[in-house]
Structure formats: structure tokens, C-alpha cells
Amino acid sequence: MTQRIPVVERILSANDELAEENKSRLNAANVFAVNLMASPGAGKTSLIEQTLPRLAEKLRVAVVDGDIATSIDADRAAAAGAIVAVQVNTGGECHLDAVMLHQALGQIELATVDMLLVENVGNLVCPAEFRLGTHKSVLIASIPEGDDKPYKYPGMYRGVDALVINKIDLLPYINFKMDYFQRGVEALNPGLVTFPLSCSTGEGLDAWVHWILENVKRKA
Amino acid sequence: MPSMHELPVTQSILEIALKHAEKADAKRITDLHIVMGELSKLVDESIQFYWDMIAKDTIAEGANLHFRIVPAEFQCMACFEKYKPDSKEFSCPNCGAVGVKIVAGEEFSLEAIDVE
Ligand SMILES: Nc1nc2c(ncn2[C@@H]2O[C@H](COP(=O)(O)OP(=O)(O)OP(=O)(O)O)[C@@H](O)[C@H]2O)c(=O)[nH]1
Ligand SMILES: [Mg+2]
Ligand SMILES: [Zn+2]
């Protein structure tokens, strides 16, 4: 005889639980952690490269880099001044998850670190669903991707705490309707803190760095 | 764009189902009822393929996966109109405001299992 059992459990609940554990570990060491998400090539590594030198005198920053196969991005982060850069090969997986961050944290001496920047795998479909246990999630959009991304990937715009709009130096060359883009963002995530900037020219980076420092201060 | 999250998602579904079946002393899981919001877009048909692979040799082998897709529903925070967002425009069709509460469409859970 068949019987129906109600379950009603979030499918990623096991990941969520481990994410909470990661967060406790970060909190215990007083490390402020940020999860950087974006499509491939939006400028995640470039933003890390631009951010690290601007924090150099103030914070000791570790970087965790999720990549499907290579260590290119972790090498770039190390060269830009990360005190430690951990490469996580996701083995084909299209996002980092709480287990992967858990393992990466094991390779970092958290007591010697003030901040952790996590570069997620380039992907707009699922990283937001797989919580890591970081304090803030940041989405990096970029001008060449087009102004329709909030409409096509609403889930990504929904769950983040800040939005970086990178490559604004390319605005004169690309038909990117900023008001259409921002209308989509505003609907999904009203009042979202937004940083238009360019990793090439450095324009707008000060406001972004200021936001990080304010968050670290608030946490301490 | 690489997309391979279906495997861990499927594993997660299996673990939750097995846990609840065990609690109920079930011999076999015949059906799983999954609720998925239109906005989460997290899995596709390949989940059935992974299911057949990983549920093998468990009490859930051969179980049927049923998906209930919940359409997206927004509520305007300016005029409180409820509406279904257009795929190219999210602003309120009634008053033009942006800024909504998402009433439905973000679900992603295992709702129930049928067991013997
Ligand atoms: N014009 C312009 N190009 C930029 C800017 N930021 C990054 N780029 C370029 O965009 C390309 C991709 O940058 P990355 O930082 O490697 O992007 P990513 O998001 O880390 O890419 P993946 O890790 O491969 O997903 C590089 O060629 C950068 O030089 C910018 O502000 N303006
Ligand atoms: Mg990169
Ligand atoms: Zn309205």
C-alpha cells in the first residue's frame, strides 16, 4: 500500500547547514568574507587585482578562487598581494558550494587574516543558490554582457547584497540601456547598493573599497 | 556556460528522501514530489538521468520524479497590485513602479514522497 509522507524540506538544506558552520568559523576568527559572483569574464579576478593593493596597508586579505580546472586566477590574486590564495578546483562543477569552501578554509590560517575574498566560478545560473557562509554576496555585472541580464537571471540579482557594474569605460561603445538594466535590478532587489566602476581605468573603485572598509569596521 | 549542478542537487534530493523514508520505516520509495519556482530555474531534464544513476541500489531505485513548477508572482510595493512579470519588463503594469515583493516563484523543495 502506498503512503504519502509530507517532507517540505529545502533541497539544498544540507549545503545551507554547512554554510552556517563556515560562517561560525569565520566569525570566530573575526574574518569578514565576501562571495564574488559573475558570468565568465565579467571581471571577478580583475576586481580582486584592483582591490587588494588598495587594502594593502589596512587589511590582510586571503583569496579563495573557484575554477573548473586551472590556477590562473589564484596566481593572479597572489601576485596582486593576497597573503594566501587558495585554488579550489571544482572538478567540472559550475559553482562553489559550502563543502568546497569548508575545505579551502582548512588551508588558511584564519587567525592571520582580516578578510576573505571568494571568487566563485563564472556562472549566472546557480551560484546564488549554493550559499557558502560568507557575510556578503556581491554580483559583478559588466557592460558587454548586455542590459537584459536581470531579466534573464533574476535569481542571481535577487540574493546579493551589493552589485558592481564593471567595464563602464566601454559604455560609449556599447548599446547598454542603463535605466532599463537598473529598473530590472530595482524590481528584484530594491535599494541594492551599486558600484559602477572600471577595473581598467580605476574609476569608481574608491567607493567600492570604502564599502568594504565600512563593513569590516562594522563587523569588528 | 558550464552547468553541472544537477548532480549535487540530485544527490541532495536523494538524501532527503532516504532520510524521511527511513524515519517512516518504508520499504520502497515510489514517487518524489518536487516544487520548483519559475525563478529558481535550477534544474532541467538531466536530473532524471542523474537520478537513475545515483538511486540505483537504494530503496528509491526506479522512483518517479514529479515536478510542480510554481509560476512567478510579483506584488508591487507602490500600489499592491499582484502581477505575473513579463520576461522583458518587471515594472508594475498598473502604476509603472519598480520594487516588488516576490510572492511566488522562488521555491525549491521536496514537498512529499510516496512510499510503500
Ligand atoms: N575594458 C575593460 N575590460 C576589463 C575591465 N575589467 C576586466 N576587463 C577585461 O575582461 C577580461 C576578463 O577579466 P577577468 O578579470 O579575467 O574576468 P573573470 O570574471 O575573473 O573571468 P573568469 O574567472 O574566467 O570567469 C580581461 O581581458 C580583462 O582585462 C574593465 O573595467 N574594462
Ligand atoms: Mg577569474
Ligand atoms: Zn503598482
Put simply, the count of helices of chain A is 8
CATH first level of the domain at 6-71 and 105-115 in chain B: Alpha Beta
Count of β-strands of chain A:
8
* Mean pLDDT rating of chain B: 90
Radius of gyration of chain A over alpha carbons? Answer: 18 Å
CATH class of chain A: Alpha Beta
Q: Mean pLDDT of chain A, nearest integer? A: 95
| Multimer state | heterodimer
- What is the level-2 CATH architecture name of chain A? 3-Layer(aba) Sandwich
Poorly predicted runs of 5 or more residues of chain B = none
Find the CATH topology of the domain at 6-71 and 105-115 in chain B: hypothetical protein PF0899 fold
SS-based class of chain B: alpha+beta
Largest sheet of chain B: 3 strands, mixed
The proportion of strand residues of chain A reads 15-25%
Global structural class of chain A: alpha/beta
Strand arrangement, major sheet of chain B? 2-1-6
Count structural domains of chain A.
1
Largest interface: A-B, 43 and 46 residues
Largest sheet properties of chain A: 7 strands, parallel
